[in-house]
């Protein structure tokens, strides 16, 4: 359908303006009530002579205006602001009452008629603003003319005789002048039109044009704001679904392998946004091998989440064809770098544990240094074991890189009781209020004071310490942690016995 301003909108969009119209009706009704309240002390001050009274009988007019104002307020309450024609009636009452003030107090009440024009903006209806502006012009001209005839005379429009002496500290001269003055009604009317009615009409014209401009553009902004809100709500719903799909793709059931007593593992991911780029994974390609992955995709939001899902799927797929972590990651790199127009990349740590021997073979593609618990203490792997991240270089470019940048395999002999702790940079780059990083040294210190090497308790302890460190600062990056404890190939009693 088409609105009055020519904008194409859906029918449901009209609900915005219907709801807005109800609120605007209430505002106008409230303005009528406030004017009625203000009119009471004005009435009293007129009674006691504090104001100059018009020449005609003003008392019935004041009482009538008071009744009209209260009627307008009650009228809005009667229909709860929910009639389409109510706005026109309420604003007409407001224009009529403001015009009546101008009639009664010609010399000082013209500006009241700005009020209906200003309040009409709140409806965001161009047609209504034009209606109120035209009605204001008509009522002002009529009340201005009638006020010049029956209201308080503004002596600024009366031409004083030549030679009149004006004494500022004595008003007797004014009374004498008025008594002796030949009152030229036509000249007074012309002066009134020239010096008051015409200038005020110009003011109302400018104000009307401004109000119509604000009304139209305000209406457009409201429509766009509503469309943006709908789009945002839809995106939030889609992000919520994407988040559930993403979380559902990451293994979250622990213990992961309840029938295997040679090892125990636990992992967790805490995203900074609805969807994230961090992920972990673990699977057993055969009875004697456990593949463990933790990765961090560059960027945030939907693009990172899509690349995360792609990377996770590719790693699992390539792990069926290759046995060495470096070969798996190089194969994944070739496929991701092939169509990587956005220059995104993935840091990956991939470890393959040979359960029967305790040999952990791992490859690090630009990821954080793994922490290892051996001989009763925690330490980070040596520097220089990390190659470039996946997706940064095509296979032929990877071959030309210096050896220190290539993705290579490294081996660690795990003994019963040894633990592997791996994480993403959301852990070490967690920031407190003073912008200090959590850092690797603090991480090792926290791991050393954990009091337990159980993967679940270990990760819970680190997570609590990160929260204590950052306090109320917002999480700026995904935080992912994975712990793997090796009990030995001969452990058949149960986990936790070593």
TrEMBL record:
The chain crosses the membrane at residues 24-46, 58-75, 84-103, 132-153, 197-215. Keywords: Hydrolase, Membrane, Transmembrane, Transmembrane helix. This is Serine phosphatase RsbU, regulator of sigma subunit. The keyword Membrane applies. Residues 260-486 form the PPM-type phosphatase domain. InterPro entries: Bact_Sigma-Reg, PPM-type-like_dom_sf, PPM-type_phosphatase-like_dom. The keyword Hydrolase applies. GO terms for molecular function: phosphatase activity.
